[in-house]
Amino acid sequence: MIGFLRGKLAAKHPPVLLLDVGGVGYEVEAPMSTFYGLAGVGVEVTLHTHLVVREDAHILFGFGTERERSLFRELIKVSGVGPRIALGILSGVNVDEFHRCVETQDAASLTRIPGIGRKTAERLIIEMRDRLQALAGGQPFAVRGPAGGPAAAPNPQAEAFSALVALGYKPPEVTRMLQKIDASVTTTEELIRHALRAASG
User: CATH second-level architecture of 4-63?
Assistant: First the structure.
C-alpha cells in the first residue's frame, strides 16, 4: 500500500493530478476539496493516498488531509458506494459538511451529489453515524519550496466541464451549471467550486 506521496506538482487536470516523485510521474485522482487547497504547478506537495486495485487498473486516490482520506476509506465500506461515488461525495461536500448531513439526517443535501439517490443517502446516514466518531483529525497540506506559477489553462471552461462530467454530472446539466456562473470567474477551480456550490444549494 502506498501511504503518501511527496513530490512536485507537475500538472492539474481535475480530477487528476500528476505528481513528479523522484522523476516518476504518478497520476492521482483527487476530490475537489483537495484541489481547492493546492498551490500552483511546480510546488512540492504531500498527498495522503489510497490505492484501489482492480483487475484492469491500479488507481491512486490522493487527499490533502488525513481526515479526507479517512472519510473516503469509510465511505467505500458502505454498500453501493465505490471509489468514484466516494470521490464525488468529497467533491460535493467537505468533511465537516458531511458530518453535519449525517448528524442532522439531511438526506436531501446528499441526494444533490451525482450518483447518490434517496436510498443510498439514507444508507450513508445510518451506516456512517457511528463510524464518523472514529475519524481522526488530519494535517493540512505539506507545501514546500517557492510558489510556482499556476498552470496555464488553455480553456478553464472546458477543463471545468470535463471535471464535472468525471464527477458524475450529465453533460447538459454541466452546460447549464457553467452558463449560470458570472463571467468574472475565470479559473478552472473557481468554476468548479461555484458549480458545485450551486448544485448543492
Answer: Beta Barrel (2.40)
- Sorted by where each begins, the domain ranges of the chain are 4-63, 66-134, 156-200
Dihedral of CA atoms 138, 9, 18, 70 in degrees, nearest 10, equals 0
Please write the tens of the pLDDT for every residue from 118-172: 999 999 998 888 777 655 344 443 433 333 334 444 578 888 888 888 877 887 7
Amino acid at 43: V
Q: Decide if 4-63 and 66-134 have a common fold.
A: no
Alpha-carbon span 86 to 79, nearest angstrom: 12
Q: 71: which residues sit within 8 A by CB, 6+ positions away?
A: 90, 95, 98, 132, 135
Under CATH, to which class is 156-200 assigned? Answer: mainly alpha
| Digit-coded pLDDT (tens) for 35-46 | 888 878 899 999
Q: Which residue type is seen at 6?
A: R
Alpha helices for the chain (secondary structure H): 32-35, 66-75, 83-92, 95-103, 107-111, 118-131, 156-166, 171-179, 188-200
Q: May I ask the CATH class of domain 66-134? A: mainly alpha
Q: Which three cell numbers stand for residue 172?
A: 447538459
CA–CA separation, 130 vs 173, rounded Å? Answer: 35
- pTM of the prediction? 0.70
Note whether 200 and 97 are within 8 A (CB).
no
